[in-house]
Structures are given as structure tokens and as C-alpha cells.
Design goal:
Shape: rod-shaped
Structural class: alpha+beta
Radius of gyration: 64 Å
Strand order of the largest sheet: 2-4-5-7-6
Mean pLDDT: 80
Distance between the termini: 145 Å
Order of helices and strands: HHHHHHHHHHHHHHHHHHHHEHEEHEEHEE
Number of helices: 23
Strand content: 5-15%
Largest sheet: 5 strands, mixed
Low-confidence stretches: 1-30
């Protein structure tokens, strides 16, 4: 039996020496930068940050690293910088709020930059590990299972490997070493099968070797420790390898080899600042070494250092009593051992009760979280249903809009077709209109020529007729005076004179009508006294009045001047006054005018007490050659000419239909400034 044990010991030493001689561990550390293709400046600064991870200065240094990585476009190193800030609070072993806060920051950044590795790293290696270190195993187990489910849904193998890693740690803390070994082996299998990041593979191998050592399977322990040595990438991994290899040699009672590896681990922690935060495991192995080599006082000193250095809590204090009792028992100080064992069992009972309460609280918290998650899921489902309903409405609206657009497009297409046809027809009509316009223009020119020739003919004829008529009128007056003693001869001469005068008036009216037809506007640029114009007309008409008729002129102002055409005003007033004289046998004829400054018009009124004009004939009298009484002398052109003159001067001439005692004509003309 002793020979077999010695052989196993020699074989283990040879295997270990062979492994150590064949592995360039330091060289592998230097290859990390190349393997991950990290900028040299960033990598050096990253190492400085790792060395200061236990100092508050690492917060500012990590911000600087994040900014430098951003300038170089290295999102991976930005995630590492955020992890450094998380590590500071994690290694303080307190401030759950801060750890949770930075875990969420890392996870959010990892999601945004599509770096799931750091998403699951922050969740597993920091948040869940924190719960493990705080002995909140049930919460840690709950988080680990939740992370496993999420990683499996996403089929992210690195996340699944992380889940197995933390599950192994939880079972190890619960002293369920077989389950811890199974989960650790699954983690390693997934890492190798899917060729995942092997940076922490050395640590996984060394933990697995340590677990096998705890259950007494030393051959498997040495196997996995040797595998750990083949893939060391950092000083921390090398440190763990030395400490766990020392633990292995203690398990096979090779204290000398154990001490050699403890010295290597200590030397590495003295030279590498980033290793110092991991001395707890080293002190545990060192205590075991002192107990194994019967250096009990030193073992007690190490136990004191473990308690004081790593922020004890109640459970740590209970474990300390058990460890001290075992040390005193090995020393042979049974009284001290019994005293510490007694304290251990007393406190352990109360601790178990406390643990049950904590466990109940943890389960209550987990149930609360599950309930909140369920409510959140229901709310998300409701929101998704609302979103789906909104999307359906939008789709229906878009379909309706597209249908309407198609209808409009089709209608526009039809309308465009019709429009093209209409444009073609319009073009043809335009051509026809152009031809018609040319024909009309020619006809207009012909009509204008005819009108001009007619006017010239009328003017010439009127002139030719007027000359002999003037002679006839003149000589008839002479005859009337020459034969004044003969009543018959005087009457004949008077008839000749009167008819010649009427004929001359007809010629003048026809000539004036012809002139007015050819003119657009009548010039009105003479400054005239309106009162004087009216008075002249009154004087000329007075001798034509019937004996019982009174002629009245009532001007609004004694003198009123305006820019107008006094001859045309006189012509209108004379026509109106002469008509009034013809049809008024008794009563009065009144001429007046009113000035309306606000309307900028002057209004003339000729009122008589004659026979009047029937209501249905009040517009007819302004037509040419219209006579209501054919036996009354006149041409029937006076009122027509008067209205034409008024309109061409910008005014109006109407019959006042409200006046029924006789007849009233109203002439309106604009006032020009």
C-alpha cells in the first residue's frame, strides 16, 4: 500500500514537472494582446486599470479608457472599460445598488453594440457571483436559471456556458460537489465544442481539479490541474493554478511540493498588483498547509487575517469558530477545541434558523419578482395586442388609401384621356375660332367702313339738305314779314317755316345720332358754371310754354362750376325741357340740381305736371324713333340721344317711376376733380 502511494506520488510529481517544463506560461500572457487584436496603447492602459481595480481612481481611469477606445472605434474595449467600473464595486463586496446599476449599464451597452459576451459576463460573473459571495444562494440560483433560459432561447452558447459556471459555483457553496463538478464539466464541454472564448478555460480546469480533490479523486484532480497549466493567459490564472496545485499536494500529503507552489503564488501576488485581490483562496490553502505541518500558531494567525481582511459576516464568523476548533483539536488542546465547537453548534443552530428566514425571504422576493415579471409579461402582451390592432388599422387604412389612390389614378387616367380628346377638340375649335375671328375682323372692318361711309353720307346729305332748308326757313320768315297784311299768306309762310324747322331738327338729330354711334366717350374737360347753363336753357324754352304753364328754376347753389361738357348738358336739358313744354298744358315745369359730395355726383331733375308716361312705357320712350303720341310734333330721337350722351359722359338718365303727378326725368353725372 505504501509502495503504491509512493508510486502515485512520484507519478504526480513527474507529470506536474513535465507539464511545467513544457508550458511557456509567461509567453502566453504576452500573446493576449495579439490574440484579441487590441491596440497597444489601449492594452497598456487597460493593464493599469486592472492593477488599480481596488482603488477609487479606477473609475476615472475607466472613463478615460472608454473615451480612448471610442476615439479608436474599439467597442470591445469600451465594454471592458465599463466592466472595470463594475469590478471596483464588485470587489468591494458591498453596495448592491451600485453593482446592479453598473451591471445594467454593461448589459445595455452590450445589447446596443451587439456584444452578448459582456452582457452575460456582467450578469453571471458579477451580479450572480455577488449573490453567491453574500450567501444568497437561492437568489443566485434563481438568476442563474433565468439566465440559462434566456441564453437557450437566444441559442447563445457562451451565455449557456456562463450559466453552467455560476451554477457550479452555487452548488460548490452548498457543498454539493458532485453537482458542482457536473455543471463545471458541461461548461468546459460547451466551450471546447463550440470553440468559445478560452481565456478563462485555465481557471475552469483548476476549479474542476480543486473540486475533484475535495471529494478525494486525486487522479482526476491532477489531470484537470495539468490541463489548467496548458491554457494560462494571465497572472491571476497562474496564481490560481499555483494555489490549487498546492491544495492538491496537501491532499496527497506532499507538504514540500505544496509549500513550493504556495511560495510561487505568493511571489506572483507580490509582483503583480492585479493578483492581490485574490489572496483569500491563497490564505485558505496556506492555513491548511500550516495545519498539515503542525504550525498551529501560524495557522491561527492566517485564520485571523482571513476574518479581518475579507469583511466577515455572521456566517463567516461561524465558519471561523469551526476552523479554530479544528486547529485546536489538531494541536491537542481539546478544551479550547471543545469550547469553540460548543460555540459553533450554538451559533450554527441560530444561523440555521436565520438562514431559513433568509431563504423564506429570498423565495418571497423571487415570487415577487416572478409576479412582477408575469404582470410585465401581461402588460407587454396587452401592448403587443394594442400594437397589433394599431398595425391592423394602419394596414387597413393603407389598403383603403391605396385603393383610393388607385381609383384616383384610374379616374385621372380616364380624365387625362378625355382631356386629351377635349384638347384636340378645343384645338380644332380654336382653329375654327381663329378663322371665325379673321372673318369677324374682316366683317367688322367692312361694317366700320360701311358705318363710316354711312356717317359721311349722312353728314354730306345733312349738310346738303341743311343749306336749302336754311334758305327756305330764312325766306319763309321774309315772306311772313313781307306779306304781314295778308293773313293767308302769313299763315302759309308760318307753316313753311315751322315744317322747315322740324325738318332741320330731324336732320340735326340724325347727324348727332350718327356721330354718337361712332364715339366711345364724349370729351368733358371744360370748366362750366352749371347754374348759368341751366339758366340759359330756361330762357330758350320759356317762349315755347303754354299760357297756363309756369317755368321754375331752383338751383342748389348760386354759382357752381365743374369740369364737364356744357354743350352736351345743354342739349340734354333742352330736350327734356322741350318735351315737358309739349306735354304740359297747365301747372309748372321745374328744373333743379343737387350736389352729392360723398357720392361725387350731380343730380339734375326736370319735373312737370303734364300727361306723364305710363309705367310700362317708361323704358320704351328711350328707344329710337319712339313717340307715344304720333300727332305731337317731333322726331322721336330726343330722349334716345339724351340717354346716349348721359351714358357716354359716365352718367345715367331715367324716368322717376315714383312720381305720378306728371313726369320727372333724373339726369346723373359724375363730379370730376
Amino acid at each position: 500500500m505504501n509502495t503504491r502511494k509512493t508510486f502515485r506520488h512520484i507519478l504526480a510529481v513527474l507529470l506536474c514537472l513535465t507539464t511545467l517544463c513544457s508550458l511557456p506560461m509567461r509567453g502566453q500572457q504576452r500573446d493576449t494582446q495579439k490574440e484579441y487584436n487590441v491596440d497597444s496603447t489601449l492594452y497598456v492602459y487597460y493593464l493599469h486599470c486592472k492593477a488599480e481595480v481596488s482603488s477609487p481612481t479606477v473609475i476615472q481611469m475607466s472613463d478615460t479608457l472608454f473615451r480612448m477606445a471610442g476615439e479608436k472605434g474599439d467597442q470591445r474595449m469600451q465594454a471592458v472599460a465599463l466592466c472595470n467600473k463594475l469590478d471596483f464595486y464588485y470587489y468591494q463586496n458591498k453596495q448592491l445598488d451600485s453593482i446592479t446599476h453598473y451591471v445594467n449599464i454593461v448589459k445595455d451597452f452590450a445589447r446596443k453594440t451587439n456584444q452578448p459576451k459582456y452582457y452575460y459576463f456582467a450578469w453571471s460573473k458579477r451580479l450572480i457571483n455577488y449573490y453567491i459571495k453574500q450567501h444568497q444562494n437561492n437568489i443566485a440560483l434563481y438568476e442563474a436559471n433565468k439566465m440559462m433560459q434566456e441564453a437557450e432561447q437566444e441559442k447563445y452558447m457562451d451565455g449557456i456556458a456562463n450559466a453552467y459556471n455560476v451554477l457550479s459555483s452555487i452548488y460548490q457553496l452548498k457543498r454539493l460537489y458532485s453537482l458542482a463538478i457536473d455543471n463545471k464539466k458541461k461548461e468546459i464541454e460547451i466551450t471546447l465544442e463550440y470553440d468559445l472564448d478560452k481565456y478563462n478555460l485555465s481557471t475552469s480546469y483548476s476549479i474542476l481539479g480543486s473540486l475533484y480533490g475535495m471529494i478525494g479523486k486525486t487522479d482526476e484532480a491532477l489531470e484537470y490541474l495539468n490541463k489548467s497549466a496548458t491554457c494560462i493567459y494571465s497572472s491571476t490564472q497562474e496564481f490560481y493554478y499555483y494555489a490549487r496545485l498546492a491544495q492538491y499536494y496537501l491532499s496527497i500529503n506532499d507538504n514540500a511540493q505544496a509549500w513550493e507552489y504556495l511560495k510561487k503564488a505568493k511571489a506572483l501576488s507580490n509582483s503583480k498588483k492585479e493578483v492581490k485581490k485574490n489572496l483569500q483562496e491563497y490564505d485558505g490553502v496556506l492555513k491548511q498547509y500550516y495545519v498539515a505541518t503542525k504550525q498551529y500558531e501560524k495557522a491561527l494567525e492566517v485564520q485571523d487575517r482571513i476574518i479581518s481582511a475579507y469583511h466577515p459576516n455572521d456566517k463567516s464568523f461561524i465558519e471561523d469558530l469551526l476552523n479554530r476548533a479544528s486547529i485546536y483539536y489538531e494541536m491537542g488542546d481539546l478544551s479550547q477545541a471543545a469550547r469553540y465547537y460548543n460555540k459553533y453548534y450554538m451559533l450554527n443552530d441560530s444561523a440555521q434558523i436565520s438562514n431559513e428566514n433568509i431563504t423564506a425571504g429570498e423565495f418571497a422576493a423571487m415570487l415577487g419578482v416572478e409576479r412582477l415579471n408575469l404582470e410585465k409579461s401581461e402588460l407587454q402582451q396587452q401592448m403587443q395586442q394594442r400594437d397589433l390592432a394599431n398595425k391592423q388599422r394602419i394596414i387597413i387604412f393603407l389598403i383603403a388609401l391605396l385603393t383610393l389612390g388607385f381609383i384616383i389614378f384610374y379616374r385621372e387616367h380616364l380624365l387625362n384621356g378625355r382631356l386629351r380628346i377635349s384638347q384636340k377638340q378645343l384645338s380644332e375649335k380654336n382653329d375654327e375660332l381663329l378663322c371665325s375671328q379673321k372673318e369677324l375682323k374682316y366683317a367688322k372692318e367692312q361694317a366700320e367702313d360701311g358705318s363710316r361711309m354711312k356717317s359721311e353720307f349722312i353728314q354730306n346729305m345733312s349738310h346738303e339738305i341743311r343749306t336749302p332748308l336754311n334758305s327756305i326757313v330764312g325766306f319763309s320768315q321774309i315772306l311772313s314779314s313781307y306779306f304781314s297784311d295778308s293773313d293767308d299768306t302769313k299763315e302759309y309762310a308760318h307753316i313753311i317755316e315751322q315744317n322747315s324747322t322740324n325738318l332741320l331738327q330731324l336732320v340735326n338729330d340724325v347727324l348727332d345720332l350718327s356721330y354718337l354711334d361712332g364715339e366711345r366717350d364724349i370729351p368733358a374737360q371744360t370748366i362750366a358754371d352749371i347754374t348759368g347753363v341751366c339758366q340759359t336753357c330756361i330762357d330758350q324754352v320759356r317762349f315755347k310754354l303754354k299760357p297756363d304753364v309756369q317755368l321754375i328754376f331752383t338751383p342748389e347753389r348760386e354759382n357752381f362750376t365743374m369740369q364737364t361738357n356744357p354743350d352736351r348738358i345743354s342739349q340734354i336739358l333742352m330736350n327734356l325741357l322741350q318735351n315737358a313744354a309739349k306735354f304740359t298744358r297747365e301747372g309748372s315745369i321745374t328744373l333743379t340740381y343737387h350736389i352729392r359730395e360723398e357720392e361725387k355726383i350731380i343730380l339734375f331733375s326736370i319735373t312737370d305736371t303734364g300727361i306723364g308716361i305710363p309705367a310700362d312705357k317708361q323704358e320704351t320712350v328711350f328707344e329710337r324713333f319712339t313717340k307715344l303720341d304720333s300727332f305731337v310734333p317731333g322726331t322721336g330721337l330726343g330722349l334716345s340721344i339724351s340717354r346716349m350722351i348721359a351714358e357716354k359722359m359716365g352718367g345715367t338718365l331715367i324716368v322717376d317711376s315714383t312720381y305720378t303727378t306728371g313726369c320727372r326725368f333724373i339726369l346723373t353725372l359724375p363730379l370730376k376733380e
